[in-house]
Design brief:
- The chain is of the alpha/beta class.
- The chain folds into 2 domains: 6-127, Response regulator (Rossmann fold, 3-Layer(aba) Sandwich); 141-281, Alpha-Beta Plaits (2-Layer Sandwich), CATH 3.30.70.
- Helix content is 45%, strand content 18%.
- It has helices at residues 14-26, 37-46, 63-71, 90-98, 111-127, 141-150, 166-173, 175-196, 217-234, 271-281, and strands at residues 6-10, 30-34, 51-55, 81-85, 103-106, 157-164, 202-207, 210-215, 255-261.
- The strands form 2 sheets. A 5-stranded parallel beta sheet has the order 2-1-3-4-5, with helices on both faces. The protein has a 4-stranded antiparallel beta sheet with strand order 7-8-6-9, sandwiched between helices.
- Helix 1 (14-26) links the parallel strand 1 and strand 2.
Length: 283
């Protein structure tokens, strides 16, 4: 008998909540809704959901506080959380990542994209997947294991490759096109590391648009220059020909940010501290 997953939708806009409720019920899910943060926490205590779609802006406590309390409870600490919000700033994404969010989607959203991201998050949760479903690049536990190894030695350098403004690109061209972008970026990063890096180098996801390369001091400068040059030369080609040169864009163009982190910039308390410092280097 096929398992019917339960989704909790936490959204204060009643129209949006009802639309998502109806849509995901048609998709075969059990759905419950909450319009307030405190109600969402109580609902999770009464019946553990398989996934939470969580708006950040709520009438009482915000979605970040809801996520923080769910992560702090043994019963709900592993429940996948997808933030659904109007916030687009990198600081908002960083805060969500620090709280262990599984995904982050901005409004207005494509319902088909949300459906696929819900499916992917549930697959990762139920099957214990260790690779990103779009790129095939390691994420989650595998990345944490490699970063934990870094904390045990001083023979490493972390290189962060961050793709910016993908949300705006997705709104203009759709989630299929945006997935093609992140897939192409991952291939460029991976191929560059394979071609000029060390045999022991590692590439993984910190988030959907943030890649971390674990390498060594003697190769990090060459890797950074090669990755940056190749990606910056390629970003315009992700756009349709008619949109490659436009004076005024409805959204900011795709852009690249990179930073590196050395052991001497520590000490680092734990893996989460290491990730936070690395991401702030790039903000």
């Amino acid at each position: 008998m096929e398992i019917k997953h339960n989704i909790l939708i936490v959204e204060d806009d009643v129209d949006v909540a009802e639309m998502l409720d109806a849509y995901f019920r048609v998709q075969g899910y059990d759905v419950s809704t909450a319009n307030w943060g405190e109600d969402a926490i109580k609902a999770c205590q009464n019946k553990r959901p398989d996934l939470v779609i969580l708006d950040i802006r709520l009438p009482d406590i915000d979605g970040y506080e809801v996520a923080r309390r769910l992560r702090g409870n043994r019963r709900t600490e592993d429940v996948p959380i997808i933030f659904l919000t109007e916030k687009r700033a990198q600081s908002d994404r960083l805060q969500g990542l620090e709280l262990g969010a599984d995904d982050y989607i901005t409004k207005p959203f494509d319902i088909q994209e949300l459906r696929l991201r819900v499916r992917n998050a549930l697959q990762r949760s139920t099957q214990g997947a260790i690779n990103n479903p779009v790129t095939g690049v390691p994420e989650g536990g595998l990345v944490d294991e490699r970063l934990a190894d870094c904390l045990k030695s001083n023979d490493w350098v972390l290189l962060l490759v961050s793709l910016e403004n993908l949300d705006g690109f997705r709104e203009d061209y759709g989630f299929v096109a945006s997935d093609d972008v992140i897939r192409a970026v991952s291939l460029m990063v991976h191929n560059t590391v394979r071609n000029i890096g060390n045999a022991s180098d590692f590439v993984g996801h910190l988030s959907a648009t943030d890649f971390v390369v674990v390498t060594q001091l003697d190769t990090v400068s060459n890797l950074k220059v090669r990755i940056q040059t190749q990606l910056e030369q390629s970003l315009d080609y992700f756009y349709p020909l008619r949109d490659r040169i436009i004076p005024e864009e409805p959204h900011a163009r795709l852009a690249l940010r990179m930073s590196k982190l050395l052991p001497t910039q520590g000490p680092f308390k734990d893996i989460d501290h290491l990730k936070t410092i690395l991401l702030k280097q790039c903000s």
